[in-house]
Amino acid sequence: MSQSPVTSLAPDPKRWRALVFIALAQLMVVLDATIVNIALPSAQEDLGISEGNKQWVITAYALAFGGLLLFGGRIADLWGRKRTFVTGLIGFAAASALGGAAGNEAMMLGARALQGVFGALLAPAALSLLAVMFTEAKERAKAFGIYGAIAGGGGAVGLILGGFLTEYLNWRWTFFVNIPFAIIAAAGAYFVIREPSEGRNRSPLDIPGVVLSTLGLVALVYGFTRAESDGWSDAVTVTMFIASAVLLAAFVVTEAKVKSPLLPLRVLTERNRGGVYLSLGLAIIAMFGLFLFLTYYLQIVKGYSPVKTGFAFLPMIFGMIVGSTQIGTRLMTRVAPRLLMAPGFLLAAVGMLLLTQLEIDTSYAGLILPAQLMLGLGMGTAFMPAMSLATHGVEPRDAGVASAMVNTSQQVGGAIGTALLNTIAASATTAYITDHAASATTPAAQKLLAAQSMVEGYTAAIWWAVGILVVASAIAAVLVNTGADSGTPVASGDGEGVEDALKIPVVAH
Question: Residues in domain Major facilitator superfamily (MFS) profile (predicted)?
Answer without folding.
Answer: 18-485
